[in-house]
């Protein structure tokens, strides 16, 4: 890493850390990672431990967040649910970011008919009410977490493609690209070695915000019964079960919902913080 | 203006073909020949269902013939018959549901724009004050909260605990006998929760956007000029600045349509509102393929129409586009 790049990263880190809310968000995200990895060590229960003698118990010292209609520990299921959320968030956004970045790079760099075809395809995809498209595909297949992640990814790449394309349009006329071309670098080398690193900031920001969106989408699909299938715990399907007991077991509905809310806010704060840190125009320091 | 209009309408054809092609691909995910292995064991898909699918979509014919036949049918608004026991044509089922979903979405849009724009303006004119931070946190909460969960919580508080609001359907039992005003009041009470949740959830994008464009516009020279002329601040903000900031917001109107239509699945399911979203959800759950495909295409076309309207409104509002000097 050259001196200037390390200086660049130092500036970004400093600007990110100057944003108090972004740091809180990053802290929560880090905590969620740790919780997901250490899940079995954090709780004495297993997520599918049935206990017919301790059904629908309110929060207590033995069960901090109570038990559900099958006597399973709610806190344990929320902890294991964090794993699902993390997986869905990262895999689906990874798919979306990959497709969007590649499409945006090629559309922006080559222009012409490649650009036309790719961008019209983006327009077409944007016409579908995404939620309808997702439900329709899942209705055709059997609901499974892999289909969910793939379909969220395949319906979420259009924004990234547009942003990257716009970035590439301005980058491809810069001197360093012309220089690379002058010394005979291939198109692919120019695109992936010279342009891509400079077009990454909007991808990183959109991807971070996208994780929040993917987690919300997964929970909504699971809530509707076509996402992650019981008995695998997901925050969304816990709420489905909880709504039948709303009147006498509020803890079944409150805590998974709060888990989603806090996680989504955390990713949004980090995303907004990154946007401000990476974009020189919003600089206030 | 005429040339712009023609170009814009011509652009619809490739989009139209694209939408139908993608839907066609989705249909082929359905249990027919290609995915036989996977669904052969599934009890949900009976041999009879497969037979009916094959018959309607001509699954034994070559792909381009299938596509052409299907397009031809759609041109006549024939989406086939529902697999539900009543076996009614899909288009009839959708037709009676569209007014409910559309009118609820239009009211939600009006509420969203009516609230989000003033919120954005206030945040911009009070930049970095406590007020700005307060409304920012408020709209972000709305953005981050899972709407179905908020709906549940509010149903519990207002419907179950306080029992001051109805929690499902559009009308009370026997509402048909009520006279005009009482009927309206009854419907309005049923709509408070769904509309409230939908609006709260959608405020963030638009109000943040208004805030940033307002900040941009307020920095322009002509705003300084207007202030220097001694115009009252209210006139400067609402007449000079807001008008210019509002232009790009018109396009957002078009973009927010797919989200609204898609979101209706969740609201209509939770609040038992007999609209297109609920119909779609029931179709998905009972694997009513013709119904699902029909609504998917119709939903995309509604979005297309909405985008076209928004673009035209933009052209009417912005002379630069009308006269073709901007792309």
Mean pLDDT of chain A: 88
**How would you sum up the global shape of chain B?**
globular
> How much strand of chain A?
under 5%
* SSE order of chain A, one letter for each helix or strand: HHHHHHHHHHHH
- Ranges of chain A with pLDDT <50 over ≥5 residues? none
Q: Which class best fits the helix and strand makeup of chain B?
A: mainly alpha
Radius of gyration of chain B: 24 Å
Could you explain how this protein is built, in words?
The complex is a heterodimer of chains A (285) and B (327). Chain A is mostly helical and 285 residues long. Chain A has a single domain, classed as MetI-like (MetI-like fold), CATH 1.10.3720. Helices cover 72% and strands 0% of the residues of chain A. Chain A is elongated, with a radius of gyration of 22 Å. The model of chain A has no long low-confidence stretch (mean pLDDT 88). Chain B has a single domain, classed as MetI-like (MetI-like fold). Helices cover 76% and strands 0% of the residues of chain B. Chain B has helices at 2-10, 12-27, 36-39, 47-57, 63-75, 90-125, 130-144, 147-161, 180-218, 221-228, 233-270, 276-285, 289-317, 319-322. In chain B, helix 7 packs across helix 9 (180-218). In chain B, 35% of the residues are buried. Classes of the chains: A mainly alpha (285), B mainly alpha (327). At the A-B interface, helix 4, helix 5, helix 10, helix 11 and helix 12 of A face helix 2, helix 7, helix 8, helix 11 and helix 12 of B.
Structure summary:
Chain A has 285 residues and is an all-alpha fold.
How are the SSEs placed, and which strands pair?
The complex is a heterodimer of chains A (285) and B (327).
Chain A: H1 3-17, H2 20-42, H3 74-110, H4 112-127, H5 130-140, H6 145-154, H7 158-171, H8 175-182, H9 187-195, H10 200-223, H11 235-243, H12 251-278
Helix pairs in contact in A: 1-12, 2-3, 2-12, 3-4, 3-6, 3-7, 3-10, 3-12, 4-7, 6-10, 7-10, 8-9, 10-11, 10-12, 11-12
Chain B: H1 2-10, H2 12-27, H3 36-39, H4 47-57, H5 63-75, H6 90-125, H7 130-144, H8 147-161, H9 180-218, H10 221-228, H11 233-270, H12 276-285, H13 289-317, H14 319-322
């Amino acid at each position: 890493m050259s001196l200037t790049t390390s200086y660049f990263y130092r500036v970004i880190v400093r600007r990110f850390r100057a944003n108090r809310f972004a740091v809180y968000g990053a802290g929560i995200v880090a905590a969620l990672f740790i919780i997901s990895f250490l899940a079995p060590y954090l709780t004495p229960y297993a997520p599918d431990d049935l206990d017919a003698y301790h059904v629908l118990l309110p929060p207590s010292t033995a069960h901090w967040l109570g038990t559900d209609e099958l006597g399973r520990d709610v806190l344990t299921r929320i902890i294991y649910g964090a794993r699902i959320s993390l997986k869905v968030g990262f895999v689906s956004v990874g798919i979306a970011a990959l497709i969007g970045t590649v499409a945006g790079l090629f559309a922006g760099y080559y222009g012409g008919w490649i650009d036309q075809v790719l961008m019209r395809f983006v327009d077409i995809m944007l016409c579908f009410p995404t939620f309808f498209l997702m439900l329709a595909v899942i209705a055709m297949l059997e609901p499974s977490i892999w289909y969910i992640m793939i379909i969220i990814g395949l319906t979420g790449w259009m924004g990234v493609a547009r942003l990257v394309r716009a970035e590439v349009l301005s980058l491809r006329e810069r001197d360093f690209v012309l220089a690379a071309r002058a010394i005979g670098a291939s198109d692919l080398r120019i695109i992936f070695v010279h342009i891509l690193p400079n077009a990454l900031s909007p991808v990183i920001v959109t991807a971070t915000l996208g994780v929040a969106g993917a987690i919300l989408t997964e929970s909504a699909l699971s809530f509707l019964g076509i996402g992650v299938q019981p008995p695998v715990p997901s925050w969304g399907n816990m709420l489905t079960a909880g709504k039948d007991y709303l009147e006498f077991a509020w803890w079944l509905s409150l805590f998974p919902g709060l888990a989603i809310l806090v996680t989504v806010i955390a990713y949004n704060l980090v995303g907004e913080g990154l946007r401000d840190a990476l974009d020189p125009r919003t600089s206030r320091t | 203006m005429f040339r712009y209009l023609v170009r814009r309408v011509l652009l619809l054809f490739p989009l139209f073909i694209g939408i139908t092609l993608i839907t066609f691909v989705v249909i082929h995910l359905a249990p027919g020949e290609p995915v036989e292995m996977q669904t052969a064991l599934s009890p949900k898909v009976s041999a009879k269902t497969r037979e009916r699918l094959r018959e309607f979509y001509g699954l034994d014919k070559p792909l381009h013939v299938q596509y052409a036949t299907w397009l031809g049918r759609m041109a006549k608004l024939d989406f086939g018959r529902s697999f539900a026991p009543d076996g009614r044509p899909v288009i009839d089922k959708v037709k009676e549901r569209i007014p409910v979903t559309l009118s609820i979405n239009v009211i939600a849009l009006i509420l969203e724009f009516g609230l989000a724009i003033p919120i954005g303006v206030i945040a911009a004119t009070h930049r970095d004050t406590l007020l700005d931070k307060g409304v920012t946190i408020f709209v972000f909460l709305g953005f981050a909260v899972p709407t179905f969960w908020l709906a549940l919580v509010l149903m519990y508080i207002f419907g179950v605990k306080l029992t001051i609001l109805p929690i499902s359907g559009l009308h009370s039992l026997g509402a048909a006998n009520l006279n005009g005003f009482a009927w309206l009041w009854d419907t309005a009470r049923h709509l408070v929760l769904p509309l409230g949740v939908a609006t709260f959830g959608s405020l963030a994008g638009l109000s943040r956007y208004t805030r940033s464009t307002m900040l941009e516009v307020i920095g322009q020279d002509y705003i300084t000029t207007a202030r220097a002329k001694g115009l009252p601040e209210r006139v400067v903000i609402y007449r000079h600045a807001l008008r210019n900031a509002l232009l790009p917001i018109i396009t957002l109107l078009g973009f927010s349509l797919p989200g609204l239509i898609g979101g209706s699945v969740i609201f209509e399911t939770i609040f038992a509102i007999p609209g297109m979203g609920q119909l779609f959800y029931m179709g998905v759950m009972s694997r009513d393929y013709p119904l699902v495909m029909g609504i998917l295409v119709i939903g995309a076309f509604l979005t297309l129409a909405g985008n076209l309207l928004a673009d035209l409104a933009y052209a009417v509002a912005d002379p630069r586009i009308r006269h073709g000097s901007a792309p």
